[in-house]
Amino acid sequence: VTDLLIVEDDAVIGSTLRDALTAQGYQVRWETSGRAGLAALCSTAPDLVLLDLGLPDLDGVEVTRRVRAAAASAVVVVLTARTDEIDVVIGLEAGADDYLTKPFRLAELLARLRAHLRRGPAAPCAPDGDAREVHQVGGLRVDPAARRCTLGATEVALRAREFDLLARLAAAAGQAVRRETLMADVWDEHWFGSTKTLDVHVAALRRRLTDAATAAGMAAPILTTLRGHGYRLEQV
Ligand code: CA
User: Fold this and answer.
1) I want to staple 233 with a disulfide (CB 3.0 to 4.6 A). Which of 98, 100, 139, 169 is the partner?
2) Would you tell me the crossing angle of helices 60-70 and 34-43 to the nearest 10 degrees?
3) pLDDT tens for residues 129-143?
4) Neighbours of ion ligand 1 (CB under 5 A)
5) Can you tell me the distance from the alpha carbon of 210 to that of 219, in angstroms, rounded to the nearest whole number?
6) pTM for the whole thing?
7) What is the dihedral of CA 25, 31, 34, 39, to 10 degrees?
8) How many whole angstroms from 109 Cα to the centroid of ligand 1?
9) Ligand 1 centre from 80 Cα, in Å?
10) Measured distance CA(51)–CA(96) in Å, rounded
11) CA-CA distance, 4 to 17, in Å (whole number)?
12) What pLDDT, in 10s, does the model give residues 101-118?
């Protein structure tokens, strides 16, 4: 059984989501405030949290950060009417995995949830079974089997999707990787949500690498944006 937690103060949206997701076979709990949602995280361990950013009692970014901290392995999808907050909430600060902008179609929400839940946590990138492949790019070392990333002697703390993204780029260091390829390999082959989520994850990844480089006293790995094409992790 897949457990979902909905945190949404709007009675119409909340009840519609609860009923629709229950009908899909999910075990659904619905809370109407940030505090109640956070309390529910302690008593249940949801696989996925659907989180409204506009809650009456807590700031949306703050509640996202606290949900992420309390439910490290859960997929966190934020619902928002405020597009200006999306970058902050997804990649840079709070660590949500995805977002939907209100109003959204129920069919799109269901498809996105299925894509997230089918994937499951921390799928390894390397397709070649138990071959232990480690990618070394300058001082950057990415070990998909161990799910470890180091820069020099400094461990780089990455979230699951950031690690998968870096591992995919490091496997092709020096080569351009198309956006569609990254979305298919790192997210889901049937993904049909916005690919903006890729850009915010890249932004978050760059920041984590820069922070690690500062800590290690080294140059940060260079992740080049190729407009209209994709990204390239520079070979050094
Ligand atoms: Ca609201």
Assistant:
1) 169
2) 0
3) 445 689 999 999 999
4) 9, 52, 54
5) 8
6) 0.60
7) -90
8) 17
9) 8
10) 9
11) 11
12) 888 888 888 888 888 887
